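Annotated sample (chain length 200).
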Amino acid sequence: MRIGMGYDVHKLVEDRPLILGGVTIPYEKGLLGHSDADCLVHAIMDSLLGAAALGDIGKHFPDTDPKYEGADSLKLLAEVKKLLDDRAYIIGNIDATIIAQKPKMAPHIPEMRQKIADTLELELDRINIKATTEEGLGFTGEGLGISCQSIALLETVDNYLYRNVTTGIVDEVEGRGLTDVSREREQVEKIKENRSRNNG
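Output written by the structure step:
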């Protein structure tokens, strides 16, 4: 298993939409950035890239490249997933935190989780998002910006197959009705196909 950490921060300014986790949140200010400035998705991307030792989002999606101006961060996240698929990684889980004094994030977290899970083709219970404040301290506490942190766990397909498929654990768990592992099975097959194609 491999673990990665991601962090991102953007300044709050007027005349920009506030987008976090792919969700547009009603607020008087938005985040400043070259893309849509979705610092939650950016932190998640960096944690995934870090776990796979693939650098960071600046390496893959530089803010000096005009094609990423105003880019939808969820589409960039989908590109990160392709990088992981090509290298035979499966995402175990993601745990992310939004740090913002305002606005309240709790009402929007369920939609954020769903959008990120859909983009990564994961079950919802593999994505956790929390929100907190810094009690009025620092730049986030003063309402000058929003920061986000993320931790991601990756597993290689080989390890996944050994633990869950070749040992029969998946069949046993599925047979007992404890969880639906069909998405994992599909993901394993898709990654195996990609790897065979690349090796060929």
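Annotation: The beta strands are 2-13, 18-20, 23-25, 30-31, 89-99, 127-132, 145-156.
Annotation: Residues 172-178 have pLDDT under 50 and may be disordered.
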